[in-house]
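Need tokens for this chain, all 565 residues.
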Amino acid sequence: MNAYEFARAEATRVVEAAYHKAVEAGALPAGDIPPVAVETPKDASNGDWASTFAMQCAKPLRLAPRKIAEEIVNHLDLTGSCFDTVGIAGPGFLNFTLGQSWYEKAVRNVSEMGESYGRTQTRKPEKVMVEFVSANPTGPMHMGNARGGVLGDCLAETLAWSGNEVTREFYINDAGNQVDKFAHSVEGRYIQEVRGEDAVEFDPSWYQGDDIKTLAHDLVEQYGGSLLDKTAEERFAIIEGYGLPTNIARMERDLGRYKIDYDVWFRESELHNSGYVKETMDLLTQKGATYETEDGALWLKSTDFGCDKDDVLRRGNGFYTYFAADIAYHRNKFEKRGFDRVINIWGADHHGHVKRLQCALDALGLDGTHRLEIVLMQLVRMMQGGEVVRMSKRTGKSLTLTDLLDEIPVDAARFFFNSRAAETQMEFDLDLAVKQDSDNPLYYVQYAHARICSVLKNAAESGFVLPEPAKTDLSVLTGADERALIKQIALLPEEIAQAAQSRDPSRLNKYAVALAQQFHHFYNACRIKDDDARVRDARLTLCMAAKQAIGNTLRLIGVEAPSQM
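Here are the structure tokens for all 565 residues:
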């Protein structure tokens, strides 16, 4: 049960019923009324829920909003609803106050659902693919991949918890120019290691990283100098056949360490080898969406579909562009594998590619404008000691995902990278991420979970039997701090659903901090173990509900919920 959605539906129901009852009594005229708008007010002193229905109806009913509100209240029947009272404020706001039964049901709902608490069922569940990271297998993963990895993983989790069928996918760019450059880079370093640095001039356009040198060294260990006796084609095939799988395995290992597991690792080379790229380009041509130029190049009529310029699909030399492969890949997602929606996490520097790809899918009749969503992710600045960090202390080179996970705990990396919406630039404070106090938001949330575990353990060690929520009298939970905590706990299903809908999993971090804060307020204001039995058991039950909500939220983010700290 989504307690907030339940309350919203109840408010809608009783207002609609009151209106129709007022019409039958002749107190209000019949009219073409709009749907009842219900929301939670920013100021809790205005009630738990509010409706602008009276203002909405002023024009169609040709009455003052206050008059409409008064008649609605006069004809309201709250019997059996989750509300105690409804008042009128200002020009005609209807303010609802939740009754004790709602608070009790909200707490019991947590224990009933347990580890599934927070899961909901969207009205229109979809088969969704979330593709994220998809780093080139030609070098180590950088901070953009680190941020995109967590955002994609957490978004996929919120979508699944909202009732969708979700697939996580990594697209391996194992074809095209970057692979040729990669193999030539390793080959150059291999020749240098065998014959000396002066044996071959290392092309400045090749990959320069130490990882290339490491791969070359590994090849020397395996083959000695024998690869130099091979033909250029044979040597290239051996180098590519070793280097790419090695790097892909490393990426999979590093992402596993980062607690990211993909359902599918999809290879770009499969699209080319199967002829699917050519088939897709032929299909675009059949639909009249392409044209050829005198040099033999094939172009997409992107401008016919709202783009500012046309795009080349096949160069005059017969080689398909990366864009052509990308179109084929997304056609595969929609047409061959039947995804209703595809969500890609991309760096903000790819913003110009979004409309082009959607236009291409539109040209194929796949409605890319609506079914393909791109979440654009801004840059990350790593900070330490108040200064920007670009290099690894260990290697002196650009900071990689592996370097980061050697520097700070995985949980800290995941929590901090998920703390801001994708479209905002972020500063990642390495000092704060390892701080062991309440300044660190992850520590603050995990400490709240550990504190609850300690409360429950101490109660058991004191001889108290932990209460069964279904049999506990929760009617005594009427204090302001108790109710505030219950409302925060009850918000979790709504927050997950909203995070999925807005494609913003950072809402989970904000929710977790707010929940921890509310629990600490409750803990400091309400005695638990030393109170009378009914109150003690009710508060222990509330503690268990808070523990479950915090634990489930941290699990969604992919971090541990410790029992002690």
